[in-house]
């Protein structure tokens, strides 16, 4: 009997240690503590709710190798990172694309034609998003940013310039979702 209880306790502990842990809940959306980019484990840095007027739009989580509240340091680091957005309402592609271009202009100095072209590629990938669908941006140094829209892989865009510019739309000096969103995503 003692051996059986010990075996059951060991199995339960093993199961608990291998299951992903839940980090937080916001607007009914639960995000995990960690994500993997290749062999690199990333930790949730912060979680924020994007609101537009009186409507909840999406819940976002930023994952980094090490937690940081310093936006400039996050953008300067050439390390893997991931931004995940879980939509809590329908949003059409046109509105999403307008937000990308507004965020680019407001948060990136000296926008080059090459960077604008990369945002054009993103706009071409973007589709309408329905409530419950997920959008994600995963940057891996050397290969660029993999993009997932409506839960479907859409391809990649090379260059740290794009990875930094897209992240700056949320954590730059004039974040589109607002300063409260930026503070939450930075874990403040």
What would CATH call the architecture? 3-Layer(bba) Sandwich
CATH class, anyone?
A: Alpha Beta
Gyration radius, rounded = 18 Å
Helix content, binned percent: 25-40%
Let me know the largest β-sheet.
Answer: 7 strands, antiparallel
Shape: globular
N-to-C CA distance:
50 Å
> What share of the residues does DSSP label as strand, in percent?
25-35%
- How many extended strands? 9
Strand line-up across the major sheet: 3-4-5-6-7-8-9
Low-confidence stretches: 1-20
Do you know the CATH topology? Chalcone isomerase
| Number of separate domains | 1
Structural class: alpha+beta
Could you tell me the mean pLDDT? 90
What is the string of helix and strand elements?
A: HEEEEEHEHHEEEHH
Helical stretch tally: 6
Concise synopsis of the structure shown:
By secondary structure, the chain is α+β, with helices and mostly antiparallel strands. The protein has helices at residues 2-18, 71-76, 93-107, 113-125, 160-171, 179-185, and strands spanning 22-26, 29-32, 34-37, 40-52, 55-64, 81-87, 134-140, 144-149, 152-157. It has one domain (2-185): Chalcone isomerase (3-Layer(bba) Sandwich).
